[in-house]
Design goal:
The protein is of the alpha/beta class and about 575 residues long. It contains 28 helices and ten strands. Helix 6 links the parallel strand 3 and strand 4. The structure holds zinc ion.
Length: about 575
């Protein structure tokens, strides 16, 4: 078989006007070439396969070109000709992932000293720059502090946050974006036409969606499909088979049965899918994606085709099917099928997990609501039982305290900056601590415990706004900042990150704000943030103070406002 060059290599952009999906970056770089104002260090960040290295190479040629044309390398001058070959000595490409030893960095710096052989600038392109070791970074930093006039560094990375601030602050930073499915499809069709590849349009859309914004991945996928098509047509079915994805007609039919709560039909269609050779976990994954598409179609009616990167025809089919399902039921399907799609060694039978998800999806909403109601009653009963066993101290004290002591307590309140020594009214003093205007605002703020506040908010949502209860459950309260409560949603978890996406849409966010404000007793805003699960913050100051009182005895403790100690001391 002849050695065929990969599509993404053949179709790699060699001029700025061939780069797709990064228009504003290209505009700026071209204008720098035109004006000749070149910086010493650039940082190109962004997801894999979106054109960082290609743009770096074009830029390296453009700034060296003797007669650039509107910011583009001319391709004819001696510099352009010298730089065509990858073995030239003036544009050096280094992959930090494989050259992360300090010796290599030293070697690099040695080379930085010498002027370029034939061109104006010697350009160092460092791929995966975040993989450099600390000594390598230090060596690089030294060079960046006093760079020779002829040196230009271009650092490319998928993880700019891993670069030291000292390096970042010396770079001009360009953030490359994911390329939209529509632009990827246009490019794939262009490449296919020019390479005499026959294709179905739907096939290109499936490739674009699967490549998650990366052009290189999209072209590689087209390459794989082209070779299996064996001279024939790249069809939608072929791409799906390559990806191990279920046929949408079959999925739609199965989902039809699920939204109609027809368990019998759902089981038959599921069987048919598995008989075609699809793995239970793959089918569960496809159903999870499908339910997500339906939920989005239900929420964002107008621009659903763009959001789902689907054809107008497919978008209207999603909308039609979504109308027949309740939002709750779609959310439940996402939950169930996401769980069933996860492989782990404890799942004795993936098929059993899939069947369970199919069955539970077919339970009518009313029955589920009853289940939830029963759970809520049980929860309230628990709370009541706890209350009977441990009555709240405030109520007990209020009953025990005779009128004259309330008067004394008021005097103690005025004296909060001094000694709190009224042993008779612990709870009342705590209340005073929370509302006393003499305390600094920072103190009053931190007395709202994020965990406690979120628990109360979720409780209110469970009672009043049931339809979003399923979404808020995955949130991890993080911190109270002024009138905002930050809540983290783990973005490694498909479901949870989807929930935070949904909570940001339409009226959902307002409902959470309302519940939060009610729980806090003042106007507050809910701020969903995605990221890793953050450590749970410590208990609030009032609770800490309680512990101190308990340990040392109340009469032995002085309460002094924090500002007297500066910011280093916490109660
Ligand atoms: Zn040139």
């Amino acid at each position: 078989m002849p050695n065929v060059q990969a599509l993404y290599r053949i179709w790699r952009s060699r001029r700025f006007d061939e780069v797709v999906g990064q228009d504003s970056i290209i505009r700026t770089l071209r204008s720098q070439v035109r004006s000749g104002s070149i910086a010493h260090a650039y940082l190109f960040s962004g997801p894999r396969g979106v054109g960082k290295t290609s743009v770096a190479k074009i830029f390296a040629r453009a700034i060296n070109c003797i007669a650039p044309e509107d910011g583009e390398p001319c391709g004819r001058c001696s510099a352009c000709e010298a730089l065509v070959s990858d073995s030239n000595l003036d544009v050096l490409e280094m992959d930090a992932a494989s050259n992360n030893k300090v010796d290599d960095a030293r070697d690099l710096i040695e080379r930085v000293k010498y002027p370029p052989a034939v061109t104006r600038y010697r350009v160092f392109i460092i791929d995966e720059a975040h993989m450099l070791t600390t000594p390598a970074f230090n060596a690089l930093l030294k060079t960046l502090e006093e760079p020779p006039r002829h040196a230009v560094f271009i650092l490319a990375t998928t993880e700019p946050k891993k670069l030291p601030d000292t390096i970042l602050s010396r770079c001009q930073w360009y953030a490359f974006r994911r390329i939209t499915p529509r632009i990827i499809v246009e490019r794939l069709e262009y490449v296919a036409r020019r390479s005499a590849i026959q294709y179905e349009t739907e096939a290109m859309w499936i490739i674009a969606r699967a490549s998650d914004g990366g052009m290189r991945d999209a072209l590689s996928l087209l390459d794989v499909c082209k070779s299996t098509a064996d001279g024939g047509v790249v069809t939608a079915r072929l791409v799906r088979d390559t990806l191990g994805a279920a046929d949408p007609e079959v999925l739609f039919a199965l989902a039809d049965a699920l939204v109609d709560k027809n368990a019998r039909a759902a089981f038959q269609r599921m069987d048919a899918c598995l008989a075609q050779g699809l793995e239970p976990q793959e089918l569960a994954g496809s159903l999870c994606e499908h339910a997500r598409a339906l939920a989005l179609a239900k929420i964002c009616e107008d621009d659903v085709a763009d959001i789902l990167a689907a054809t107008a025809q497919a978008a209207s089919e999603y909308k039609e099917q979504a109308q027949r399902a309740s939002q709750e039921s779609l959310l439940r399907m996402i939950d169930l099928f996401a769980a069933a799609s996860q492989t782990n060694k404890w799942n004795a039978s993936p098929r059993l997990m899939l069947e369970r998800a199919v069955l539970r999806s077919c339970i009518p909403d009313d029955a589920i609501r009853l289940e939830e109601l029963a759970a809520r009653v049980e929860y309230l009963e628990d709370k009541l039982a706890n209350l009977a066993l441990n009555p709240a101290p405030v109520q007990q004290e209020a009953r025990a305290v005779p009128p004259p002591i309330i008067h004394q307590n008021a005097a103690a309140n005025n004296d909060m900056q001094g000694i709190v020594n009224d042993t008779r009214d612990a709870a009342a003093s705590d209340t005073a601590l929370a509302v006393n205007p003499a305390l600094s605002p920072a103190n009053a703020e931190s007395s709202l415990d994020a965990n406690d506040l979120w628990e109360r908010t979720v409780d209110i949502i469970k009672r009043k706004y049931t339809r979003i209860y399923g979404m808020v459950r995955g949130g991890q309260p993080q911190a109270v900042n002024g009138d905002e409560l930050q809540v983290y949603f783990d973005n490694d978890d498909k479901q949870t990150s989807f929930y935070s996406e949904m909570l940001n849409k339409g009226s959902n966010r307002q409902l959470v704000d309302q519940a939060l404000s009610q729980a806090a007793g003042r106007s507050m805003r809910f701020v969903p943030a995605s990221g890793k699960r953050a450590p749970v913050p410590p208990a609030d100051n009032a609770a800490k103070l309680d512990k101190v009182f308990h340990t040392f005895g109340r009469e032995k403790v002085d309460v002094v406002p924090m500002e007297k100690f500066g910011n280093n001391v916490n109660i």
